[in-house]
Amino acid sequence: MKKLLLLPVLALVAFFFLHAKVKDNISIDVKPDVLEDQIPSHVKAVIDQKCYGCHNADSKNEKGKEKLDWDDFEASRKAKQLATMAKINEALIKGDMPPAKFLENKPEGKLSKEELETLLDWSAGKKKSPK
Amino acid sequence: MKRLTYILGFLALVLLGIQLVPNELPEVQIYNTGDLIQSGLVSEDVAGLLKTSCYDCHSNETVYPWYSKVAPTSWLVAKDVREGREELNFSYWAEMDLMKQLGKLDDIAEAVENGKMPMEIYVWMHKSAKLTDAQRELIVAWAEGAMDTLVEEGEEDFEFE
Question: In what residue span(s) does the Cytochrome c domain sit (chain B) (predicted)?
Answer without folding.
Answer: 34-147
